[in-house]
């Protein structure tokens, strides 16, 4: 089984809809992160969490939210999807500062 | 401001030769970490190598080594004996203050020629 999974892998939605992207890791890592990747911008941090019930805003958090009810999962919610949120989304996790492992990514298209 | 700069949008290398991918960083923190990731055309992000700011030795992982020059604020990735499978996008990233929050450069596309 993959150590960190994301679902769905591909999603097409309409402007204004709520969308939730799932991230699940099996390592019991305390630290989990969501990034988005756009052409010309590399990856940018959306939200992150250092443990259960802890969530923090990253560089590009507007329009996104996360919740951490257990160690394994950090779902990312787009409250009202916008075309500017069309992107590839990566979840990552780690327990030491010298490691951060990424999931396979979710390609989201907002029409 | 904390920033990562990768000045080479694209690079070519002949198979079996070594190649250096450049990365410079800017931070005022004393404690930080530098990462390199590989992103093949399939899209996943693969961790390659890590260097801590207090590490005295340059990091090495198999054919990957990190040429860390603290005074110059550079953290170049050296790939020895390039293989066709090394063709990919490579990202340099920094964790300033050891918070886990990575700042990424814009990446360098490497193409290995047979």
**Beta fraction of chain A:** over 45%
Number of strands of chain A: 11
Classify the oligomer: heterodimer
Query: How much helix is in the residues of chain A?
Result: under 10%
Kindly report how far apart the N and C termini of chain A lie: 33 Å
Largest sheet of chain B: 6 strands, mixed
**Shape of chain A from CA axes?**
globular
Question: What separation lies between the terminal Cα atoms of chain B?
Answer: 41 Å
Tell me about the largest β-sheet of chain A. 7 strands, mixed
The parts of chain A where pLDDT drops under 50 for at least 5 residues are none
H/I helix tally of chain B: 0
Rg of chain B, rounded, reads 13 Å
Can you describe what's shown?
The complex is a heterodimer of chains A (111) and B (114). Chain A contains no helices and eleven strands. Chain A is mainly β and 111 residues long. Chain B contains no helices and twelve strands. In chain B, strand 10 and strand 11 (102-104) form a beta hairpin. The interface between A and B is medium-sized, with 24 and 24 residues.
